[in-house]
Write a structure and sequence with these properties.
The chain is mostly beta strands. It has two helices and twelve strands; from the N terminus they run E-H-E-E-E-E-E-E-E-H-E-E-E-E. It is globular.
Length: 186
C-alpha cells in the first residue's frame, strides 16, 4: 500500500489546531559547522535534522555554508532517493540509488519530469560532491553531499525536499513510500 506524507500540510493543520509555531522547530536547516561523514551509515546525532516517517523511512539533513548533506534510510532492500527543489517529482533534482545483488552501488542523479524521472543534466550531476550507500538488515541507506549554491540562493527562506523508496533494485520501479518536506533555512 502506498503511503504519502505531506509534512507542510500536516504541520500547518497541527499549527492551526494548536495555535503555536513551536512545531516547526525541528523542520529547520540552518547553516552550521557540523559535516556528516558520507560513508553510507547515518549515526545518531550526525545530522542537524532527522525525522522518522512512520518507521518506513528516515530523512536526515545538515548544511554548511557550501554543502548540503542528506541521509535517507529506508526499510527496504530496494532503492532509496532524495530530491531537491520541489515538493513534487516534477522539476526536482533527484538522487537515487540501490546496492545491487553483487554488492555494487548503483547511483544516478535524475531530473523529475511530470510523474517520472530521467537522466539528469550535467548541472545536476555536477552538483554531487560525494555519495555512499549501504544495505544491511533490511535497510538501504543513501548519503549524499551536494553543492549548496546549486540549490540554495541568497535570501532563500526554505528548501523543498522529496524522498522515496521502492522494494526493488531498479531505477524505474514505482515507489512503495514517498513524502515531502519544506525545511526552513534560517
Amino acid at each position: 500500500m502506498m503511503k504519502t506524507i505531506r509534512i507542510t500540510a500536516v504541520m500547518t493543520a497541527l499549527l492551526l489546531a494548536a495555535g503555536t509555531s513551536a512545531l516547526f522547530a525541528q523542520d529547520k536547516l540552518p547553516a552550521g559547522m557540523a559535516k556528516p561523514v558520507v560513508d553510507g551509515v547515518v549515526k545518531a546525532g550526525e545530522y542537524s535534522y532527522t525525522h522518522d516517517f512512520e518507521q518506513q523511512l528516515t530523512l536526515s539533513a545538515s548544511r554548511t555554508a557550501d554543502t548540503l548533506y542528506f541521509g535517507v534510510v529506508g526499510s527496504t532492500s530496494g532503492w532509496v532517493a532524495v530530491g531537491l527543489g520541489s515538493e513534487r517529482m516534477d522539476g526536482a533534482a533527484i538522487f537515487i540509488g540501490y546496492v545491487g545483488t553483487d554488492g555494487k552501488v548503483q547511483f544516478k542523479p535524475q531530473l523529475g519530469k511530470g510523474h517520472r524521472h530521467g537522466d539528469a543534466t550535467s548541472d545536476i550531476s555536477g552538483s554531487v560532491v560525494s555519495y555512499a550507500m549501504k544495505e544491511a538488515g533490511g535497510k538501504t541507506t543513501l548519503e549524499v553531499a551536494i553543492k549548496a549554491a546549486d540549490f540554495v540562493k541568497s535570501g532563500q527562506a526554505s528548501l523543498d525536499v522529496i524522498f522515496a523508496m521502492g522494494d526493488q533494485k531498479s531505477f524505474s520501479q514505482y515507489h512503495t513510500y514517498r513524502g515531502a518536506a519544506s525545511l526552513a533555512l534560517k
